[in-house]
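Contributing new records

If you add data, match the layout below exactly. Sequence lines come first and carry their own label; structure lines follow with theirs. Keep one chain per record. Anything else will be rejected by the validation script.
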Amino acid sequence: MLRAFLGGLGVAGVAGPLGCFVIWRGMIYFGAALAHSALLGVALALLLGWPPDLGIALLCLAMASGFLLLDRGQLIASDTLLGVLAHASLALGLLALALVEGQRVDLMSYLFGDILALNDTDLLVIFGLVILVVGGGLCFWRPMLASTVNEDLARVEGVATATMKILFTLLMAVVIAVGMKVV
């Protein structure tokens, strides 16, 4: 029970501040899109013989990078793009899971986390993430806040707004990949 409490506390501690930026940036569906696409990461990891957690983390980072590349053109709204990416990768994940032979996959354990199943390694990863997010928050709070509130004004002030967007998006991808075990 102590592990569940500590794990929940760690994930909540990083999700709260980052969640504010998610709302301010209008990336409301970002978390759901990456969480749904993580099923493709599980399937690819099982097909390649890798640990599923590694597949989830790599796919979340890849999806976040893909989102950043596709969102640059501003041809469609960010939430529309996230919806397309989420459902396409979820469908591809289900297809890829059908190709996994000789292993029975419990989809519910990957789609819905189990806070009571956390082990000591999970806690180390969660609190490593807490250190990363708190450290990044202390170092980049002002430029990240400035680029979130008004990107043009932040650019005039000398803030590397593109770098802040990349940093924030990749940090969110890691938080989602780690937080999936808890939520």
